[in-house]
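Retro notes
What went well: the complex prediction finally ran end to end.
Inputs used:
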Amino acid sequence: MRATARATGAQCVAPPAPFPVSPRREPVCRKASPGRAGARMVWGMSPKLRRELDGIPTYKPGRPPAVEEGVTAYKLSSNENPYAPLPGVLEAATAAAENFNRYPDMACTALHAELAHRFGVPEEHIATGTGSVGVAQQLLQSTAGPGDEVIYAWRSFEAYPIITQITGAASVRVPLDAGETHDLDAMAAAITDRTRLIFVCNPNNPTGTVVRREALERFLDRVPPDVLVVLDEAYKEFIRDPEVPDGVEVYRDRPNVAVLRTFSKAYGLAGLRVGFAIAHEPVAAALRKTAVPFGVSQLAQDAAVASLRAEAALLERVDALVGERTRVFDRLTAQGWTVPETHANFVWLRLGERTTDFAAACERAGVTVRPFAGEGVRITVGEEAANDVLIRTAEAFRKEL
Ligand SMILES: *Cc1c(COP(=O)(O)O)cnc(C)c1O
C-alpha cells in the first residue's frame, strides 16, 4: 500500500491541520447482529485461553462514596490520601498534559535520577511501573511460572493472589498470627525447592501490623539466596516506630531483597499510576525487560518528580494523618473495640459475621469502608470530618452488639 501510495505521489501522512482536529468516529459499540450471535452458537468456539486464568479472583476496588441526599459522603475504602494535590505537583502534571500527544520518556530518566538521589542508590537499581502493583506483577513474571510457588501472609494485600495466579505459579498462604501480624517462622518453614518469591507486606494491608527489624533479619537469614523476597512498603511514610526497618537499608547488602514503594498513598498520586522497586541487578534488569513499554505516563513521571521535591510539604500532611490515626485508634479502643496497633493510614476491625452489617451502617452514615466479608473491615484514616463520622458510627454499632 505504502509503496503504491509513494509511487503515485499520494501522501501517506496527513499534513498538520490548521486547527485542532477531533476525528469523527463511527459508534464502536454496536449490538451483535442476530446472524453473528447465531454463528457463535453454531460453532461453540472461543479463543483458547490459558487454564491458569480460571477462577482468578477479581480485584475489588474500594467502593466510591454513596450518594445520599443530605449526607456528606466520604470514601474511606482505598487508603488514599484525602488531600488535594500540592500546588507544585498539580502544575507539573498540568504542564505535562500539554504534551500528551507524545509518548513519555520510556526510561523515566528524570524520575529514576531523582529517586536514586533521594535514596542514595545507583540509578540502575531503580525500576518504575504502573503503580507498585504493576511492578509487583513484573517481579512475579520475572521469577515464577507453572510449577513454582509464591509465599505470602494471609490475609494480606488482595492483589497478591491475583497476580500470582496469572503467572501460573501456586500461592502458598501463611495465616497471620493471633496478633494479625506476619508469622515469619511459619513463612520460613513454608519455603520449598519450588519457592521463587516471598512477599512481606510491611505494614500489612489490611491489618496495619508490622514486622520489626530483628524478626525480619532473622527471617531473611533463613531464606535461600536464590529466592526473591519482596518488601512491599506501600505505607512506609506512615511508620513512626523506629524498630520497623527501612527496606532500603535492608536491601543494601542482600541481593535477594527488593523493595516496593508507591506514589499512590502518602504522596497522593493514586490516580496517576506510578510505583517503583529498588533492587540489585539482575533483578532490576529483569524489571526493565518485563516493563510494559511506555507504561508510566509523562504526567505520572513529572508529578512524581515534583512530589519528591515537595516532600517536606507532603510529609506534613502525612503527619496530620498520623495524628488522626492516633485519634481514631484511641477512640475506637476506648469504645471497647480490639484494634491491632496500626502503622499505616488505616485501621482493621475483625468483625467476623458482623462485617457486612458494620459496612452497611457506615455507608448509611456517609462513610464507605472496605469490608472483607466474614473477616473484618479496613477503614482508611481520612480527613477529620470523615473520621468523626466513623467514630460516631462505630460507637453506635458497638452499643447494639
Ligand atoms: C495500595 C497498595 C499498593 C500500591 O498500589 P499502586 O499500584 O502503587 O497504586 C501496593 N501494595 C500494597 C500492600 C498496597 O496496599
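What we learned: Residues 79, 131-133, 157, 201, 205, 232, 234, 262, 264-265, 270, 275 surround pyridoxal-5'-phosphate (CB under 6 Å).
What to try next: split runs per interface for comparison.
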